[in-house]
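lol ok so funny story. i was supposed to be doing the assay writeup but got distracted and ended up predicting the structure for this chain instead. priorities right. anyway since i did it might as well share w the group, maybe its usefull for someone
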Amino acid sequence: MLMRIVGAVTLSLLLPHAALAATSCAEVLKRLGGQLADVTCFPSADLTTNNEQTTPLDNSLPGLPPFAFTPRTDRNVVSPNPPNRTPITKAVPGLQIQARIASDPLGQARFLLRLPADWNGRLVVAGASGTRSEFNGDFAWSDYVVQQGYAYASQNKGVYNLRVSSAADPLACRLNPDVPLAAFAVHFYANDPGQQFTRWGDFMVKAGRIARDGVKAAYGRSPRFTYAVGVSNGGYQVRRAIELAPDVFDGGVDWEGTFVDDTAPNILTDLPPAILNFPDYRASGFNSASTAAANIRGAGYPPDIVAGTASFWANHWAQFWEVTQCQWQKRLDPSYDTFGSGTGTYNYVSRLSFSDVGAQLAAFANTGKVRQPLVTVAGTMDALLPIDHHARAYARKVASASKQSNHDDDDHHRADRRSPYRLYEVQNGNHLETYKDTFTQLEFIQPHAQRALDLVVEHVERHRSLPPSQCVARGTSISDAPAQPGHCASLFVP
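and the output, tada:
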């Protein structure tokens, strides 16, 4: 194991000796054994992002091309812009560990662990959105929990992000559909051999286990409780962790998690209609009464918002719809002629007869078998993962799995012991927090997601009932007695 320990000072110089059972990087890493490789470990005067050392610079991992490892970009894609980020009110001294997960045969699985000096006995493990790095949650999750004394861990789903490629690359995608592939092409590491999406759940669980070992090495005892959090694809990781590893995680919060199922709806059924119809909608002058607009809304998408020359849908067209479709299709159905047959004309149902795309999706599909308390927080204006096809679809999956479990189990008290699931819908919340800068009718989801974590903790540790599933109206918060229980009546409220 290659280990780099930054600085000779140990934590004993930063805090009372009794705060940690093991006071140095060397001792903690010795107890972690061979689980990590290429380790950088250092005592830190502040584990929050007020400290520049906490999040590495983009493109700072040796031996990788540009865009493969972009920590500072990654932390910006989740959290809203200042001054709406997590408030930082104090410095948090502790220990930070950055490394590879040694057991990954591809050598891409990354791991992060932050161990605050003033530990509260708990651990939070974060998923990563998109194909982002282990630093993706630094603004949204890490700053929130380390100030409360939680140990914090994260991982990158076992995959780097992307690299610049060319149109000759059969796995190339374009970041913007208005820019020809020949002009600028990228290659996602997630589409390489061995990068099956089944790894996503595996590495969330593995990171949880390694983090628990690291906590025990640092403090002399295991965490009393471990919680999973994540956004988008990281939200999927949370769901999968709660489904697969109730022995590791005591509860979780998924924020706009991706719903994965081999039957519709899924990403490969949702995105093509939006991609196909947007050019005609744009040509109509963003006419909400056009056939193209109706087709996009009919595919489950929330209505467009037009602010001057800016269009909410146009932002998604330029930055997310096609590149997401391309990346998933090339991983799950690589024999399809992406740019010859078309991204917008991809037909998932017909492809079931010509490829194993259904089996590929089924291999990492959500089961809905919630085995620890779980909360989904999602926005009604999510125009990347439409709420009825993702958040609500997962809630339906949970309800169906629960009914089947009760039917199959002769224990009449099983329903009383069932782990609770809640869906908190944020009126006018969107997948991208930063879009609120342009479209002021949108609402931030971050404060509700952070509040949901607090509620899960109170439920798990103090047996307080989780508030019922509800629509969180604009300007309000999650309530024990919601004015709008269940789903929001409208996707958009001006």
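The chain is about 30% helix and 15% strand. Residues 267-362 form one domain.
back to the writeup now i swear
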